[in-house]
Write a structure and sequence with these properties.
Blueprint (H helix, E strand, L loop, with lengths): L4 H22 L9 H6 L6 H12 L2 H13 L6 H23 L5 H9 L1 H35 L3 H16 L4 H28 L5 H12 L22 H4 L2 H11 L1 H8 L4 H15 L2 H17 L5 H6 L4 H5 L7 H36 L5 H27 L5 H10 L2 H13 L5 H21 L5 H22 L20 H21 L1
Length: 527
Amino acid sequence: MTLETIDIVIIAGYALALLGIALSVSREPAGHAKNTEDYFLAGRALPWWAIGASLIASNISAEQIIGQSGEGFAIGIAIAAYEWQAAIVLLIVAKYFLPIFLKRRIYTMPQFLEQRYGSGVKNLMSVFWVFLYTAVNLTAVLWLGGLAVDTLTGWGVMPSMMALAGFAALYSLYGGLKAVALTDIIQVVILIIGGLAITWFALDALPAEGAIGGFGYLMQEMPGHFEMILDEGDKGYDKLPGIWTLLGGLWVLHFSYWGFNQYIIQRALGAENLGEAQKGLAFAAFLKLLVPFIVVIPGIAAVILAQQGLLDSAALAEKSDRTYGQLMGFAPAGLRGLVFAALIAAIVSSLASMMNSISTIFTMDLYRSARPNEAEQHYVTVGRITAFAAMALALVLARPFLGGFESAFQTVQEYTGYIAPGIVIVFVLGFFDKRANTAGAFTALIGSIVMNFALAQLAADMPFVIRIWIVFLVALGAAFVVSRLTPAPDAERTVDLGDIGFATSMLFNTLATITAAILVGLYVILW
């Protein structure tokens, strides 16, 4: 499969338009130098539609598109739990967590931890998040993106990763969060159109009447791939253990990612006001409902297409992460360029978001603490250097960290799961338990890692979703007890909820109700 002239023209047009818009929105008024609030939080002026679009564009990366398509091929629709449950979590975060963060006008998640627990907890988590985003998240997006681009172009995985990294750095390093968030509006439109096109072409290639008929044929021929709740013994149960995907540790992963993940929540921190931030998250929750239809369904269709010899079944059996790259070949010339641009949009928007978050945490939580009296422009420069260095390191680490795993998507979830219980505990107790203290926070964070490693060795066959839930409950209890056996925190460190409003607008409530109703319907139909 190759790109034709019309495809290259479309891709080049997309790239030039993106760079032009990024440079345009990044310009500051005459006489105004870009400061840290401008660079890291877009001047706290993002509207709701930019927040929602940027959240989805940042989230739907190569990890989702390529990884979940591969999991759709291997397991089926059950992998959509990562998308559909996230919609509920976004609504909870918008209503109960955002008011606390925005009231304190913080830049980063570690900054809240410093206000609540002190510099020790902040420094520990700052180092952890910089490492996680660089060694796991950036590497995953680069590796999966490189696989897809290599499948389509034959450039090779490393040259493909270098091209993606260079493009993301080119348009994001200068403008910061504002350039990332506002260009993400374009990215998410291209992403949805291109994703729906791949779904349409994959279904249309099935032995049925058109794409609609293809979807019906797919459900009839692959009923096991259309079950949200897997039974013990089903393929994939070790990753998505039946009812425990609704009752267990998957929620811990969701709250850690959507509630306390810097590169996600940073968009909301840059909102004009609380109402705009909440509407933005509600918009993102609604868009999350679409994601499985543009990434998982094509992966399921690929099972039959491979059986018919229309895809390379041997290559897919060896590494299911190559599914989406092969499916892109069904798009005709011209549309293939649009689909390729959509994939690039997903990858570079996520890379740019992660780079910005790494630079924000390193600069504002680590570097600025060590050198607090520098000029604002100095910190902006340090942020740009940090972002570039993180990307270079991720390029080096991508193959050794992820190249040998069957599914990079599941690998990322498992890596993240080692600390996710501790993260959720320190924030939730920090919000709602005035007695929670520094000793309790360290107990939760360190205990989460230690217990996860211990259970992974002692109960290797236990699904990691169940393991994370057990660790969460035990670490929560331990943090609660330790906080009460040690001195109480100073009153000024606790969160005063009395002056924080948790009421939400009619528009937010309406969107939340519609989203919840659709989700209930999907689970009832696909149970």
